[in-house]
Each structure stands twice: as structure tokens, then as C-alpha cells.
């Protein structure tokens, strides 16, 4: 028999968070946190001032950023932030996993190349399927850029940590080795030794935006950005400049830019040329996936559906081309027979 003591209390009931907040355009506050975007580093170039001073800048293109899913805050967290999953880029559906195709088809957007998430406050949550552009930021604003450094493989202590090395004189057998690495107690934690160099996550803080090309969805940031040209980076509002931005400015649109977005989305910069009838084919593909989702036939997601759509779109044109080829081949055969008879009569 379980006895009840007077000091025992019933367990507290945890309140479940709301499913989705009301999206209302509000003003900035001290605790507001907006979402970021994913961009691709194009390369570096120079901006020249009126005095002739060269400023090194990095070009980042914001390509096809859509809100895929929005998750409410967890019960065990104290921040109360929402998790917004952003998809960027474009990849053929035949090269995308089945669950990713499911999420993109449910939202009604094309399949994405990269996915990431950002922690935002309740007043900055965006609806699912919203398109983010480079106008999410403004000129003069300071941002943080997160990326991965170049991977250099396994390197020694002289290249990895900048060790001086040993003597290079004749007779010395130690030139680039690390030397003593510990005592009888073993190797101390944090000892600088040879190992894998690069390929680690790093963040560049407080980079000012010098110029924004809204037509091509490209931003030009002062200074260098982590990673090689062509790599994906995460761009967000600077965390160390948040209070100063609220006091002095410039303030970016909150929660995001709500005007018309350029349809190019960085295609001219990256050299991406859409295939013929691209919009019609993608609309057909998304419509077919939505029908399967409504019918519950999720197991029908296979890797050859996008190619099937291409064949359907080119069905009528293919038959006409075959008929034209047959007519041309028939005319060619007739011409060849006539020339053969003329040559025979001449002989």
C-alpha cells in the first residue's frame, strides 16, 4: 500500500506551445531575432572609392530560398524561439532523397540543394513557402557569415601551428618534427600536434554590406568570407551589433522584405540556364506529387518521375519530328534513286 505523505505534491502539467503564431508585421524590439538566408560565395573583387582606395569585397548570391517547415519551440527550452527550416538552390528530383521530395511537394516548391535552420522569435515567424531574397538585408547593415574552411588534409606542426622547426644544418636528423610531446603522465590535453587541418565551421562577424543588386539577387560584403568560391554559406544579422542597429540603424525590414522579388534569383550570376519549358515541367511534377500525397501513396516516390515528366511534355513534339524525319528520308531516297538511273544511262 502506497502511503501519501503531506509534503508530496502532484506533478506540474506542462503547457503545450501553440502550433503556429499569428503573423503580424510589427516593429523591431530588443529581443527580436529574424531568420537568415543561405547564399553561395561567387568570388572576390575590388570596390574603388572616389579617392582611388581599393576595398576588397566578396560577392554572395542568394538563390531560391524558401521556407520549408516551421517548428514550434520545444517544451524543455527556455528561449522560446521557433525553428525555421530554409531550403536553397535547386536540384533535380531524381537526385534528392524521398523525404526531402515529400516536404518540397507538400509546400509546393522545387526540390532544393541545401537545407538549414534558423532560430527566430515568435514575432518574426514567416509562413511556409515564403520566398526570401537579397532584399532581406539593407546596405550598411552588418552581418555574420558562417561557413566551412578549406580542407587541407593531414598536415604537420610547422604548417598547422606555425612551429619554427629544428636545425637545418648537416648532420641533424630532425628538421620538421614536433619534438617532445609530453611526460610520463602522458600527452596533455590540447597539445599542438600534427593532424587534420581545415574543414571546420567558422564564422566571420560584423561584415558590412557595401552594395546590393536586387535584380540579380547578389550582395557585396566588405572583406573575406569563409570557404572557397562556390561554397554554401549562412548569412544572418550580426549578433554583436544588434543593439547599435536598433539605436542608430540602418534597420532592415521586419520580419522580412514583403515586396516583389526578382524572378532571376541569381541565374545570370551562376550561369544557370533553365531547360526548355522549365516552369511547366516543374508545375506538372509538383501537381503529380501533391496528388500522391493526398491519396496517401507516398511509396510511389521514385527516382525517375522527373524524367517521365520530360517525356510527357515532349511526346507530341517527338511524333511530329519523327514524321518530318521520315518524309525527309523518303525524299532523300527518291533523289538517290534518280541520280543512280542518270549515272547508269550515261555509262
Description:
- 24% of the residues lie in helices and 23% in strands.
- By secondary structure, it is of the alpha+beta class.
- The strands form 3 sheets. A 6-stranded antiparallel barrel has the order 1-2-11-10-7-12.
- β1 (37-48) and β2 form a beta hairpin.
- Residues 12-22, 265-275 and 297-318 have low confidence and may be disordered.
Helices, strands, pairings?
Blueprint: E1 37-48, E2 54-61, E3 65-71, E4 82-88, H1 98-107, E5 114-120, E6 131-132, E7 142-148, E8 153-155, H2 157-160, E9 195-197, E10 201-213, E11 218-222, E12 232-237, H3 242-247, H4 267-270, H5 278-295, H6 305-313, H7 315-346
Antiparallel strand pairs: 1-2, 1-12, 2-11, 3-4, 3-6, 4-5, 7-10, 7-12, 8-9, 10-11
Helix pairs in contact: 1-5, 5-6
Amino acid at each position: 500500500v502506497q502511503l501519501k505523505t503531506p509534503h508530496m505534491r502532484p506533478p506540474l502539467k506542462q503547457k503545450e506551445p501553440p502550433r503556429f503564431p499569428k503573423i503580424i508585421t510589427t516593429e523591431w524590439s530588443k529581443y527580436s531575432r529574424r531568420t537568415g538566408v543561405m547564399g553561395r560565395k561567387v568570388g572576390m573583387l575590388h570596390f574603388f572609392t572616389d579617392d582611388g582606395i581599393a576595398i576588397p569585397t566578396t560577392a554572395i548570391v542568394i538563390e531560391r530560398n524558401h521556407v520549408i517547415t516551421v517548428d514550434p519551440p520545444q517544451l524543455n527550452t527556455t528561449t522560446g524561439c521557433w525553428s525555421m527550416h530554409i531550403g536553397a538552390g535547386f536540384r533535380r528530383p531524381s537526385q534528392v532523397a524521398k523525404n526531402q521530395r515529400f516536404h518540397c511537394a507538400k509546400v509546393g516548391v522545387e526540390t532544393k540543394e541545401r537545407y538549414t535552420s534558423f532560430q527566430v522569435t515568435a514575432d518574426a515567424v514567416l509562413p511556409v513557402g515564403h520566398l526570401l531574397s537579397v532584399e532581406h538585408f539593407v546596405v550598411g547593415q552588418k552581418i555574420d557569415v558562417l561557413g566551412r574552411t578549406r580542407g587541407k588534409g593531414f598536415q604537420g606542426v610547422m604548417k598547422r601551428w606555425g612551429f619554427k622547426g629544428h636545425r637545418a644544418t648537416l648532420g641533424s636528423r630532425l628538421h620538421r618534427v614536433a619534438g617532445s610531446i609530453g611526460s610520463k603522465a602522458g600527452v596533455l590535453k590540447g597539445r599542438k600536434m600534427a593532424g587534420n587541418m581545415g574543414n571546420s565551421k567558422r564564422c566571420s562577424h560584423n561584415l558590412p554590406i557595401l552594395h546590393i543588386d536586387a535584380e540579380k539577387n547578389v550582395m557585396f560584403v566588405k572583406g573575406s568570407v569563409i570557404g572557397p568560391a562556390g561554397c554554401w554559406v549562412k548569412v544572418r544579422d550580426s549578433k554583436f551589433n544588434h543593439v547599435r542597429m536598433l539605436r542608430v540603424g540602418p534597420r532592415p525590414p521586419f520580419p522580412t522584405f514583403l515586396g516583389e522579388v526578382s524572378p532571376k534569383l541569381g541565374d545570370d550570376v551562376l550561369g544557370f540556364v533553365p531547360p526548355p519549358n522549365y516552369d511547366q515541367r516543374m508545375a506538372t511534377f509538383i501537381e503529380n506529387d501533391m496528388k500522391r500525397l493526398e491519396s496517401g501513396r507516398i511509396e510511389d516516390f521514385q527516382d525517375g518521375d522527373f524524367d517521365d515528366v520530360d517525356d510527357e511534355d515532349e511526346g507530341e513534339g517527338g511524333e511530329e519530328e519523327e514524321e518530318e524525319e521520315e518524309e525527309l528520308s523518303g525524299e532523300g531516297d527518291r533523289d538517290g534513286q534518280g541520280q543512280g538511273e542518270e549515272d547508269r544511262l550515261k555509262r
